[in-house]
Structures are given as C-alpha cells and as structure tokens.
Design goal:
Helix content: 55-70%
Number of strands: 0
Length: 36
C-alpha cells in the first residue's frame, strides 16, 4: 500500500533525527514514538 510505505519512510526518517515537537504533533508521530 503506497500511503503506508510513505508513512513508514517518514517515520524512519524522523526517528533518526531530532524533530521539533510541533512538527511531530502535526505529523502525528509524537504518540507513535512515545514522545507525549
């Protein structure tokens, strides 16, 4: 599934580098990575 692949790539990218909290909240990664 293309969207899932894109999401996985985005998650992998952001998990390997610091991301501003607002950006995480916009993308919705803060909860999935246990950041909030």
């Amino acid at each position: 599934n293309e969207p899932e692949l894109v999401t996985k790539i985005v998650k992998d990218t952001f998990s390997n580098q610091p991301v501003p909290l607002p950006m995480k909240r916009i993308i919705g990664l803060d909860t999935q990575f246990g950041g909030g």
